[in-house]
């Protein structure tokens, strides 16, 4: 209803504007705009209702297992209905899993399936603990749980890999150092959320190490650039301090040994060059320059 009202308002609003502007066919662009609003609203409703229906199935699967004062015949009917709800939920999860595995699907679709798997597992665990199902139905529920656990692992890890790759690529394209680090940190958060559940996943652990190295390299490059600017302006002591800040991030354990060694040697050579420039004048002019440097930069 809201979408219809908005679409109608948009149609008449655009129609009135176009008529005032002397358009020969004002109804055509106004109708197109209203149709787009309705199509977007219907598509969004379809997605929301599909997810809500699956959650409804899962939630009713739990409530059907609650204690009841009805007769034994109605109990057996409720048990059968609850089992059918779990079966329907399992089919819905498998359908969404197949859709998420299609080429070109965004990482968020895998996360949605992982959430549905988690809800299904919680619901069936409660049903099994309640003991309201017979042995045959209990076996069927456990078999469904095994399939859903495999789907949960697959989709959660696929989401973590895909989303972290998207965020890492985005971080590499950012211009500011803060934006690079903030976006890369979000990629690490995605990986950590998956590693908390599946800590033995070595591929994700290696990806996390690679992103940590990227963040360290961004920090090192940032301080080296600041040091080079200070040296260019003649602020040699400030440049030395900033080179030492770069060394601090370079000498962290997450940085590979060969990269750390080569970078440390290069930075230490630059520091020695700056120290050599300070020796002839005993630092007197430099202190004066650096005292006026911050005000000049500001």
Structural class: mainly alpha
Backbone shape: flat
Q: Mean pLDDT across all residues, rounded? A: 79
DSSP strand (E) fraction? under 5%
In short:
This protein has helices at residues 2-20, 27-63, 72-100, 107-130, 135-173, 177-195, 202-232, 236-250, 257-278, 284-297. The chain is mainly alpha-helical.
Protein model, in words:
The protein is mostly helical. The protein folds into 3 domains: 1-19 and 26-53; 78-200; 212-298. Helix content is 84%, strand content 0%. It has 10 helices and no strands. It has helices spanning 2-20, 27-63, 72-100, 107-130, 135-173, 177-195, 202-232, 236-250, 257-278, 284-297. Helix 2 packs across helix 3. It is flat, with a radius of gyration of 31 Å.
Please specify the SSE layout and strand pairing.
Elements: H1 2-20, H2 27-63, H3 72-100, H4 107-130, H5 135-173, H6 177-195, H7 202-232, H8 236-250, H9 257-278, H10 284-297
Descriptive labels:
298 residues, 10 helices, disordered C terminus, mainly alpha
